[in-house]
Amino acid sequence: MKIINCPLNGPRNISEFTYGGEFKPMPDPGTCSDAEWADYVFNSENRAGVVREWWMHTPSSYWFLAERHTVSDEIIRTFDARELFSSRLDFHPPQSREIAG
Amino acid sequence: MPFNLLKYGLSAEYPVDVDLPPPRDLKPSYDVVIIGAGGHGLATAYYLSRYHGINNIAVLEKAYLGGGNTARNTAVIRSNYLTSEGVRFYAESVKLFQNLSNEFDFNIMYSERGQLTLAHTDATVRSFRQRAEVNKHFGGRTEMIDRQQIRELVPSLNLDPGHLPVIAGLWHIDGATARHDAVAWGYAKQAAKRGVEIHQLTEVQDLVIESGRIRAVKTNRGTVQCGCVVQAIAGHSSLLMAKAGIRSPIQTFPLQAMVTQPFKPFLDPLVSSSALHCYVQQTSRGEVVFGGGSDPYPLFNSRSTLDLKESLLAHAIEMFPFLANAKLMRQWAGITDMTPDYSPIMGLSPVENYYLDAGWGTWGFKATPICGKTMAELVASGGRVPELIKPFGLERFSTFQQVNEMGATAASH
User: Fold this and answer.
1) Most buried of B12, B135, B138, B297, CB within 10 angstroms?
2) What is the CATH number of the domain that holds B152?
3) Are B397 and A48 within 8 A, CB to CB?
């Protein structure tokens, strides 16, 4: 069994975790072009080597970041998202572009 | 006859029919360079040399012929997908498969056993009705069947696995299997006969691209100039695309499969269950093949995990309880290039004379003939995309025009 060291819950079996995708910066949906948004939504770096990605400890719904080697399948480091995000992000969708329900 | 045999045995000139000519040096230049000598690359070379009169072709393979995902799939041939774009494409492939042994004069062991997909919920039954109608519309043979008919087709199947009783089945009469190595070798042999050079142990290390056109490929055996390039690899599609400077939506996951000791024939159709994430078939040698969904996170490694074995086999045993006593003989993994909409990426790329045949996830083997045929048309016409593969262009991910086959890939996710 493979063990992931959860920053909140300690070492747990990998079956308790859910993969959450590559860590990548999100363009501002209010100002970016359709092409930039499509690139963000669909395209992947899909690197063969050390990657930084989101994981969730499923039973506790706790999201964190991991550095993992995608060839050797080694989990190098796991850490809380606070290491990268120091302030809260608030989203303000532009009023004019709201889609009527 | 005995005299002939004796003469043959004593002959100094041993008259062996050689499938592939012995390796030779790379020529300085080729009209077409195909990267990857799997089913797709070899099929493309074959159709180009046989039907389009293009013979100055090199197929470059970093390992050995047909040794990648061509050898690692579970050899399912079917066309019962969901979208009209998908079904039209795969139905054409099934037709080509049916005649492939004749085309090669080489037995690919095509065996039309039918494929049965099980529905355990009302929602699945509704999607099956749609798939049956779409498939019939494009000339496939698919129908909905009830529990009694399923029992008659597969007497050994448990129709009430755990909390998920089988409600109905999607019976795809065209469903088939074939020997995957034979498909690759059939194409290789026929292409080589027409002058196509197949270079094994020849790894493409870099691509020389100048002002939006590819000029040459650098390999471990030297650099070759090229008129155009077809990328026909699997498992590392996105890494090669990155070398050409192309952004891709591919994420790479391993998919593990395994096979048991041989049994007497008990299972004629190929059986899969989307709710149990499992497909089961018995090979012509009697072994039972199990396959499931891809691994839960991306990886470029064909290692084996106990987690996957436990979950997949628990479901397989629910379907066929007597297999609980079976011994596993082998397991392996393929590296699948998954796209967000579970359809392939075929056609043009941002580099003018660099053609893509990528993103074949878990649906590559069954498309081998049609893929080779349409890619050959694309190359021979100098970049006019055949109608059949237009919906699968890379640009669909920037124009939000995906071809969603997620629900129709047998057991994935």
Assistant:
1) B135
2) 3.30.9.10
3) no
